[in-house]
Amino acid sequence: MLKSILARIWSVSKDAAPTVASIFVAASAVSAAWGYYISRHDLREARTLQLVQQFDDARFGRAQDEAATAIGSAQELVRSALRSPATAGLPSADVSPLRDEVFVAELYRGNPDRPPGLPLAIAEVTGFFNGLEACVQTGLCDSGTAHAFFDVYARSFWCSITPVVNYERHAKRRPRFAAGMQEFVDSGGERCS
Description:
By secondary structure, the protein is mostly helical. The protein has one domain. The chain is built from six helices and no strands.
């Protein structure tokens, strides 16, 4: 009796061996693929965090501060120009292009600290975000991590420099100026108000 039970178990396991082996191979492949996916995701997050460190670096912090100062000065000049009696009665449709024109003129005018033209700091910040978007699009950086760290700053900066972007794209004939930054901001969902 025991011999017949053992013989039966042996014949069933001998017949099931290819199926068990196939299941084992499939499970190993799924496990390896999952491990690869996790390691790639970790690498994307690590690369994104390197960009966060670069963004927070003192040198790049100076560029951010210089860009904010240039933008703030230009915005202040725009506010002063719009408070003048000459613009008081203008319809809002006329005010927006005038505001953009004064803003761009002030930014490109230059001052004793920098030559005329697009402030280098603004070009550095837009260049950073162009690179970040390229990193996300190629899968080298993690989109979720990038948006978690950069969305608020990127959107605020983008909304501040939209007249500059329009000027660079149309008057300067640089149709791809800050295109990566625009794609990054647009993929975050919210628009400028």
